[in-house]
């Protein structure tokens, strides 16, 4: 089944994300975490793709496991910046053979030291979207950035390029993490005005430690509101307290989104079933309402 068909149903959809192991030795741990997350009956589980393409086989393997053994919809991420066009085509062919119908098409970060644009590569995600469309009947998701993408100084350009990407055949969008819902509502207003009409899943990242916050900030350039910084300041030195506070903060964001009419939410669960389980328990009655 295609994710877009699920998103178009009249229901609340909560999805989760896992990342594949870097080595085959780590596979069992990731599989265990994925199995636990699948018990929460998510609308789908997405599997990230290692920036250098090194984990591509494990992405496909975990995505197949989710679909075939756990009977949950799976979404395989795919990046193109650090692979040749032929390597990317090979991954798409493999996903097709495995019966994986849903792909999140991403450019990926430019590897350090790589001159870009460079050689026989797809330079932007919209080119990857076009390629996937050519190769089969996939449901295609793509990324968007409520606070603007870090490489782009002008938010208007970012939205113009997003519209170009969506027009190439994107079925739905997932946002980069954000910690202030007003930024998301403002972004939704601006992209709808620009004529982007596909479903947009806000991406919620539960931050459960100071180290994770630092990593998230470096990765996404997101702004942490004072309300979040106060939690970190007060509870950051106690792992247990910070875990509880981070889950409460993410829950609060999710409840506010649902209260404001958002139907589909993606949770960056980061191979942590205990975090995913607590959040689902916090919203169990709300998502039935
Ligand atoms: P693009 O849509 O190609 O945009 C990249 C930049 O180029 C933007 O600044 C955009 O404004 C600009 N741009 C776009 N089109 C044009 C154009 N025609 N001309 C000039 N400029 C243009 N990374 C991973 O390595 N693995 C993952 O699994 C992964 N999953 C992710 C999931 C989500 C939901 C998100 C939000 C991000 C994810 N990332 C992942 C990170 C992502 O790969 C990076 O943010 C990357 O830098 C941009 O990817 P993109 O697909 O958004 O690129």
Automatic annotation (TrEMBL):
Biological or metabolic pathway of the protein: Amino-acid biosynthesis; L-methionine biosynthesis via de novo pathway; One-carbon metabolism; tetrahydrofolate interconversion
GO cellular component term of the entry, any: cytosol
Enzyme Commission number(s): 1.5.1.54
SUPFAM superfamilies: FAD-linked oxidoreductase
Keyword entries, A-Z: Amino-acid biosynthesis, FAD, Flavoprotein, Methionine biosynthesis, NAD, Oxidoreductase
GO terms assigned for molecular function: FAD binding; methylenetetrahydrofolate reductase (NADH) activity
Cofactor(s) required, per the database record: FAD
Record-given protein name: Methylenetetrahydrofolate reductase
Organism encoding this protein: [Ruminococcus] lactaris ATCC 29176
Higher taxonomy: Bacteria, Bacillati, Bacillota, Clostridia, Lachnospirales
Gene: metF
């Amino acid at each position: 089944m295609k994710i877009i068909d699920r998103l178009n149903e009249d229901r609340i959809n909560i999805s989760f994300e896992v990342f594949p192991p870097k080595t085959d030795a780590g596979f069992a741990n990731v599989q265990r975490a994925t199995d636990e997350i699948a018990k929460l009956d998510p609308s789908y589980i997405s599997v990230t793709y290692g920036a250098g393409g090194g984990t591509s086989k494990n992405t496909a393997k975990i995505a197949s496991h989710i679909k075939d053994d756990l009977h949950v919809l799976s979404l395989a991420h795919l990046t193109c910046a650090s692979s040749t066009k032929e390597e990317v085509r090979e991954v798409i062919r493999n996903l097709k053979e495995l019966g994986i119908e849903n792909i999140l098409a991403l450019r990926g970060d430019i590897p350090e030291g790589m001159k870009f644009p460079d050689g026989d590569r797809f330079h932007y995600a919209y080119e990857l979207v076009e390629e996937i469309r050519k190769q089969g009947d996939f449901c295609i998701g793509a990324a968007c950035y409520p606070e603007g993408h870090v490489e782009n100084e002008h938010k208007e350009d970012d939205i113009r390029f997003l519209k170009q990407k969506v027009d190439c055949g994107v079925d739905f969008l997932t946002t980069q993490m954000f910690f202030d819902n007003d930024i998301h509502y403002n972004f939704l207003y601006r992209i709808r005005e620009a004529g982007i009409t596909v479903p947009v899943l806000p991406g919620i990242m539960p931050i459960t430690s100071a180290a994770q916050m630092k990593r998230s900030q470096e990765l996404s350039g997101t702004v942490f509101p004072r309300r979040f910084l106060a939690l970190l300041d007060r509870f950051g030195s106690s792992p247990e307290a910070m875990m509880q506070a981070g889950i409460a903060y993410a829950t609060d964001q999710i409840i506010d989104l649902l209260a404001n009419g958002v139907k589909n939410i993606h949770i960056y669960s980061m191979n942590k079933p205990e975090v995913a389980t607590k959040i689902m328990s916090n919203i169990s009655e709300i998502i039935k309402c």
